Amino acid sequence: MLKIIISGGGMFLVGLLFSLIFKRKKRVAFIYILYGAIIWIVTIALKFCWAVPVNKLLNNWIYTVLPAKIAGPLFWVYVGLLTGIFECGGIYLIIRYSRLKKMSLFESYGFGYGFGCIEAILLGLAQFAAVAAMATGKAPVPYIGWLTVPAPIVERVMTIFLHLFTTLLIIYGIKERKPYFFWLSFLYKSFVDTIAAWAQLSFGVTTASHIWIVEGILLILTSVSIVGSIMFLQKK
Length: 236
Description:
This protein is an all-alpha fold. It has one domain (2-233). It contains 7 helices and no strands.
């Protein structure tokens, strides 16, 4: 259980510290970080409401009518597109038709950090809840090797930058009336989630080697987010 506590605590701290450090250094009102967190909850809730009744039925149907070598990739792409539709599309609609489109650059950063950090915080809390269930005998204690303990923490850092950069692209596109920035955000985020779906659904990502291979692939993909987020600072 100690390993799970470390992983959960790491995810929680990553989400908390990223948002608090940025707020303190850039003096951004906390409300913009909170807006990002609330909109993440809204978009994920909507995606969940769609995915729960649809995904299993669609997966079964695709594998029934198509060969597995075609059905698998199609379903991975579908899962990735869900992220683009609900997360990128949700951010676009809410910001485009609200006063949030008037956010400054640093306020937009705060919003993007809030959107990404709340996920890390909630996943960390979920790990603590799992530990509580294990401690009371309500859930089995899984075996987790020490090599895999840092993986979810590293993944949260990458994901925060992914959320930040794709959010900045959407906001910039709205403010500058350049819709192709939205589509760039949509395609990029959908592609990253397609890779994640491929990893989870094709070979399960259960061993340390598999986990770190996938994390390495995601690190390469999300490095674009880190560079892009820094480049946006040059526009201040």
